[in-house]
Specification:
3 strands; 22% strand; alpha+beta; globular; GMP Synthetase, Chain A, domain 3; 3-stranded mixed β-sheet
């Protein structure tokens, strides 16, 4: 179970990363639309797992590769945004949130 502090930090990171991706979508998305669906922060606030939904899903591999290559730059920009509120900027790990694809698959099977 996450603490209140973890939840607040996760919401802050989610909001700011969404703004970063929205402002600089051409740099990170490479022709796809990104949305940050969930952020999970470790108890010591040093790691953050970021779950990203990517549309269209065919671009998933290219976008994930781009995010991993630009991870340090994204963390730097995030640090400038939340640096006054946090002492340590967590390390970012990006994961694909494929729940929308799973929902589409279930809908197709039910039809």
């Amino acid at each position: 179970m996450d603490s209140i502090r973890q939840n607040k930090v996760a919401r802050l990171i989610q909001k700011d990363l969404s703004e970063i991706f929205q402002q600089e979508c051409k740099t990170y998305a490479e022709g796809a639309m990104l949305s940050v669906t969930t952020v999970r922060v470790s108890p010591d606030l040093s790691y953050a797992k970021i779950y990203i939904s990517i549309f269209p899903s065919e671009r998933t591999d290219a976008v994930m590769k781009s995010l991993e290559e630009k991870n340090k730059n994204i963390r730097f920009i995030l640090g400038k945004k939340i640096g006054k509120q946090m002492r340590i900027i967590p390390e970012l790990r990006f994961f694909v949130d494929d729940s929308l694809d799973y929902i589409d698959k279930i809908d197709e099977l039910l039809k």
